[in-house]
């Protein structure tokens, strides 16, 4: 019976490793995205994936090593339990109060690994969160303001000048500003920046295919930059439990070429400024 329990407790770690190994083929991995293979759809996301896989390798090796040691202990314990007592010629049990050298070793080694990970990820973190490390293209200002509220995303864009070019996005709303709900549209192929706000509680701006995630905190205006590698439609989710309607807080990011984005802004301007009353010329032409 002891050997059965030894096999039982060793079966599940082995099954976990096998299932994890096969998970990408079953699409139990990163979001597929436009590429269809779960790869990150932004340059910064690729670096974040590299960090993830590095940590995954470290934890996998640690998991396999500890489970192998546990299996050895269980198997040898089950084997020795079947031996006769020491008085009848069996092996005498070995008692120990521990090893100081072993304690030091398994304290220093994990601490060293964690320190290595902390230092290794600093460049990626700084590139994403330190303003001085932002790409030069986004330092001129945000292209849109995204305000989270229960339970939707409200997006504000700057209006267009007389030549049809976007005006600077001002901190406060302007009469020329354009608005959408749950529909964030920005250029692809270059870094872009948004200003992230929250109108009520804490939310979380999450673009899973691009590996972008930033909490929206009430009272703060947080700059967030990203770059969509391909023109496509991406999921925009709230990754913070923000109330009973949290499940409904799903939107989209539409990344498109610069010319398509400008054309979309022009169409949005026409649609937003339409009062529903036809012009006299249109009425006469219709008659």
What's this model, at a glance?
With 287 residues, the chain is an alpha+beta fold.
Fold topology:
Blueprint: H1 2-22, H2 43-81, H3 100-120, H4 122-129, E1 144-149, E2 152-157, E3 178-181, E4 183-187, E5 192-198, E6 203-207, E7 212-216, E8 222-226, E9 232-238, E10 250-256, H5 258-273, H6 280-286
Parallel strand pairs: 1-5, 4-10
Antiparallel strand pairs: 1-2, 2-3, 5-8, 6-7, 6-9, 9-10
Describe this structure in words.
- The protein has 287 residues and is of the alpha+beta class.
- It folds into two domains: 2-86 and 99-128, no CATH class; 136-274, Sandwich (Immunoglobulin-like), CATH 2.60.40.
- The chain has helices at residues 2-22, 43-81, 100-120, 122-129, 258-273, 280-286; strands at 144-149, 152-157, 178-181, 183-187, 192-198, 203-207, 212-216, 222-226, 232-238, 250-256.
- Strands 3-2-1-5-8 form a five-stranded mixed sheet. Strands 4-10-9-6-7 form a five-stranded mixed sheet.
- Helix 1 (2-22) runs antiparallel to helix 2 (43-81).
Q: How many domain units?
A: 2
The helix content, as a percent range, equals 25-40%
Largest sheet properties = 5 strands, mixed
Q: Strand content of the residues, in percent? A: 15-25%
Question: What brief labels describe this structure?
Answer:
287 residues, alpha+beta, Immunoglobulin-like, 2 domains, five-stranded mixed β-sheet, 6 helices, 20% strand, elongated
């Amino acid at each position: 019976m002891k050997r059965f329990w030894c096999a039982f407790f060793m079966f599940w770690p082995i099954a976990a490793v096998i299932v994890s190994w096969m998970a990408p083929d079953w699409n139990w991995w990163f979001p597929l995205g436009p590429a269809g293979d779960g790869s990150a759809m932004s340059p910064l996301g690729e670096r974040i994936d590299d960090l993830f896989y590095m940590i995954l390798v470290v934890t996998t090796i640690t998991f396999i090593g500890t489970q192998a040691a546990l299996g050895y202990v269980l198997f040898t314990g089950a084997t020795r339990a079947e031996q006769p007592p020491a008085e009848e010629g069996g092996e005498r049990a070995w008692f120990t109060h521990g090893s100081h050298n072993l304690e030091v070793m398994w304290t220093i080694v994990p601490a060293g690994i964690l320190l290595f990970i902390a230092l290794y990820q600093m460049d990626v973190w700084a590139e994403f969160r330190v303003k001085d490390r932002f790409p030069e293209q986004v330092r001129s200002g945000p292209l849109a303001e995204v305000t989270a509220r229960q339970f939707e995303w409200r997006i504000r864009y700057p209006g267009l000048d007389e030549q049809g070019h976007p005006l600077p996005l001002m901190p406060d709303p302007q009469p020329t500003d354009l608005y959408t709900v749950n529909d964030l549209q920005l250029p692809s192929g270059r870094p872009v920046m948004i200003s992230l706000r929250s109108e009520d509680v804490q939310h979380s701006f999450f673009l899973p295919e691009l590996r972008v995630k930033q909490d929206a905190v009430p009272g703060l205006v947080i700059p967030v930059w990203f770059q969509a590698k391909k023109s496509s439609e991406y999921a925009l989710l709230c990754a913070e439990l923000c109330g009973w309607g949290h499940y409904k807080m799903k939107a989209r990011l539409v990344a498109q070429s610069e010319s398509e984005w400008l054309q979309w802004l022009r169409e949005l301007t026409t649609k937003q400024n339409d009062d529903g009353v036809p012009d006299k010329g249109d009425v006469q032409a219709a008659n």
